[in-house]
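Case study 2.
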Amino acid sequence: MTCIVGIGDGVKTWLGADSSYSQGASLSFSSPMGKLFRVGTEFIAGYAGYVKHGTLLKKELKDFTIAPDAIKGLEEYEVVGLLADKVNKVFSLNPLNSKKENRTSLLVGYKGTVYRIGVSFEVTTQENSFDSIGYTSSYALGCLHGTKDTGLSPRDRIKQSLMAAEYYNPSYTRKPFYILSL
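Prediction:
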């Protein structure tokens, strides 16, 4: 299982992830930075869902770019929508996804804002500049809310939120934790 956490400050975005994932009834551990990745030069992302989907996304999106003409006049969330369209194409065209289903969601950092690409490829963002996805996200969100006016750095807030998720559900969220920023 998973916990992905994101914070944006309007200029920079931070994403954090735990290291656990499950295969049936057993618990395994992903490799360092396994759930977090760069998408071209403009985005960072973290996934919650099937490991095969995450592996596929990391491979197919590593060189993702959008032509400047294609984004002219678009709002930032609409630019993230173009990324969501690409994610949809990756899932629908790839033989690894033989059932043509998606149970994988993403947190995406773009231009200092955290966006969520849901399982239906919808793009949303929170007004409070942070979000979390995954099985233990509610614990992380509570901690992010509780630390929003404390003066802690985004990295420290992410670590605290992942530690809270691990404390309340150690079966599904585990160290080590990883943080990526852009």
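The longest strand covers residues 43-48.
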